[in-house]
Every structure is written in C-alpha cells, then in structure tokens.
Amino acid sequence: MLCLSALSALAQETTEQPDYSPQRLRQIFTSEPEPQHQPGGVHLGPGYVEFRALGTQWRVGFLPILAPLAGSVPTTRGLAMPDAFSLNHAVIPGAPPPPERDADVRRELRRIARITAGS
Fold first, then answer.
1. Low-confidence ranges of the chain (pLDDT < 50)
2. Which residues of 61-97 are buried (b: 16+ CB within 10 A; e: fewer)?
3. Alpha helices (runs of H) in 30-102, residue ranges in sequence order
4. Distance between CA atoms of 76 and 83, rounded to whole angstroms?
5. In this structure, what DSSP letter does residue 102 have?
6. What DSSP state is assigned to residue 79?
7. 33-to-3, 29, 47, 75, 100 alpha-carbon distances in Å
8. Beta strands in 10-75 (DSSP E)
9. Bridge partners of residue 39, in order along the sequence
10. What's this model's pTM, rounded to 2 decimal places?
C-alpha cells in the first residue's frame, strides 16, 4: 500500500504541465498553413479562382457544385416557399390570438358557411 502511494506521488511530480501558449495553440488547431498569395497573383483552388483586382480580393467559383440545389431557393422552383406554420396550423409565438367573437357573429358565420356549402 505504501509502495503504491509512493509511486503515484512520484508519477504526479514527473508529469509536465500542458503548454497553452498562443503559438502552441495555433500549431495544434491549424489544419493547413496559410497560403502565401503574391500581390496581383491568381490562385487556383479546388473549384474556385482567387485574385486581387480593383482593390478587392475576388473569389469566383466555377464548379456546378456551388450552384443551389433544386428547390432550395424559391427561384429554382418557380413557386413561393410554403409557410410551415400555416401548413401544420401552429400558432406563431408572438402573433396576436384570433379575435373573440360573440354568439351572434358565430351564428351568422355558420349560416353563411351552410349557404355557401350548399351552392
């Protein structure tokens, strides 16, 4: 028992403290080095061309992978986006509640609905 406690104390003393310096963290979390762009140069990447012109850094994608998927943008379907709240009859938080109607108004609305349903 005494040997185990002595070994655990020895092991705790020999462990190194972790290095959290900014340089070490940058080294750990950087997946690839920052590319060195030449001023005015053109850089070809996977599916894009990057260049500097008119005081702006331009990145132009040329693969069809960058195009929106069919149905993901309203212009790719030709229809307006459906409103999920109206389709499942959910009440939108913060929306005013439906107006309270008295019995006479409800009776008249039912009468109108019967007349229009029968036509």
1. none
2. eeeeeeeeeeeeeeeeeeeeeeeeeeeeeeeeeeeee
3. 84-87
4. 17
5. -
6. S
7. 48, 11, 19, 39, 65
8. 42-45, 48-53, 56-61
9. none
10. 0.26
